[in-house]
Amino acid sequence: MTRVVLVDDHQMFRSGVKAELGESVEIVGEAGDVDEAVEVIKAAEPDVVLLDVHLPGGGGVEVLRRVLPSETRFLALSVSDAAEDVIGVVRGGARGYVTKTISGGELTQAIERVAEGDAVFSPRLAGFVLDAFAAADVPAIDPELDQLTQREREVLRLIARGYAYKEIAKELFISVKTVETHVSSVLRKLQLSNRHELSRWAAARRLV
Amino acid sequence: MRERHGTCDHLLVSETPGGETAQQVPARLERRVGQRLVGGVCSGLAGHLGLEVIVVRVAFAVLLAAGVGVVAYVALWLLVPQRDEPAGPRNIGQLFAYAALVVGLCLFTWGAGALNWAVWPIVAGGIGVGIIWQQADPERRRRWVRSSESMWLRSVIGTLLVIAGLVAFLAEKIHPGQAGQVLLGSTVVLAGVAVVVAPWLLRMWRDLDAERRERIRSQERAEVAAHVHDSVLHTLTLIQRSANDPREVQRLARSQERDLRAWLYEPKADAEQHLAAAVRKAAAEVEDHHGMPIEVVCVGDCPLDDRLGAMLQAAREAMVNAAKYADGEPGDQGRTSSVSVYAEVAGDDVSIFVRDRGRGFDLDAIPHDRMGLRESIIGRMERNGGKAEIRTAPGDGTEVRLEMRRNPR
């Protein structure tokens, strides 16, 4: 069974998630701030950490900075829709991002997927990535990393339209595994690209 | 403040050796404006040094007549904090007496040839500087802000006096060949004044800045409080009252969440003018009306025009349909009952996708009187040069795809 650590500064939310996940995963630890999280994760060595983006002590990004590189994989969980937060935590090393409104069943699926080393994109994250990589007229410094392939774009658009991986596979006549490969490849680009546009785009979205 | 006091004490000790005779703990050095003749400097000094007021005043009168006193007095006036008490009336008789003493001394020394006319321009200049400095006294700042007329008058008079003093001094003293030295001297004096005044101006500027920032902060706090009160608390009350109606509770919670989210994170885009904002707004309205969560993702944006407005109407109709029929079969746990809306602007192509994971239906089986689908979605799109496609199958949900090419700009 997948071993999971919950990191969130709201006790109430942690209990809620625990109740929703039920028996499908094994919760091996909980933490409410950055220091505690680093300690618990290093001690428990879980498969997956459900990581809140906003945490006292530096946020989810700080936890990632202090724990990675590690065998443990991270799934970011947030109520915030601010692009900067989302892109920040994914570039910090999280393998996916979902909003806190996600249902229990979907969350379990997302955890399994991240545990297997795949990426999890919410419709909103897919939208962010499409937006950030949209400006095709800007010359790419490293085409390998700075541009999405046509296929990756198609996959992301279907995610944004609310399609599950299985439905995407059916729509594009490819296997679910291939869909996962495309999404992982997008995640890699998102994390490694030095694309100037990406940071500028995220900064421009610093709303409020 | 501390540093400033240090300067004052130092100045006192060097000027008046009598200071060391003070036995008991000296009173705090502050200007006693309650017993002032001019600025309360002398009475303050007397209290601080434990001397009779009259001794200090006479000493200052002598120093004033010698010219040095002007600078000392003005410096003390500026640097010594004012005692927290209402300013008393000036005793005109005494003031006249001291003035007469100063003038008498001046005439005497002038007559004796010990000092020449050059002192007077310095005195005039000193008074001018004094007026400007006094005007900048922080305690009086507010009053001057209000009575800007007298502020201008004082500034003008002060400046005129300074200029008059300088000109008179130069005209009196200057000999060809000395001009350079004189100019150098003036520059040094002005630089000195600048050094004295600069930290004070800086502090005043910082005070004003801090005050302004504090005001903005408190305004923001008030705005947040008002918002929380008007919307969040209100919704929480409503949720408690409709606790036995899960659908209504969900609707209220969603609507409040969306409202807060928009308030916190969304740009203040005008829903009348831009596609993305308009799509979000339409989705919010449908969500509110039908109590069905609608997830909106927008990529790119463009200004609205008539045709895109029609497209938006079609999308809205599709959302309404989706919200009505998105519910899975009763007892169908695994299926999420939510609607996904995806709007994309890529170059000149605008697409909007509305998808639900509901029962779906057989497209050919829908009766012809179902105006919603045929007229308000497909018909509307075709009339405006776009196209609509509906994909559905029983048990597979429904997706409405709207596409349109933007008007050439």
UniProtKB/TrEMBL annotation, chain A:
GO biological process terms held by the UniProt record: phosphorelay signal transduction system; regulation of DNA-templated transcription
Keyword tags: DNA-binding, Phosphoprotein, Transcription, Transcription regulation
One Pfam assignment: Response_reg
Protein name: DNA-binding response regulator
Domain Response regulatory, chain residue ranges per copy: 3-115
Sequence ranges assigned to domain HTH luxR-type in this UniProt record: 141-206
Residues bearing PTM 4-aspartylphosphate: 52
Keyword Transcription regulation: yes
Recorded GO MF terms: DNA binding
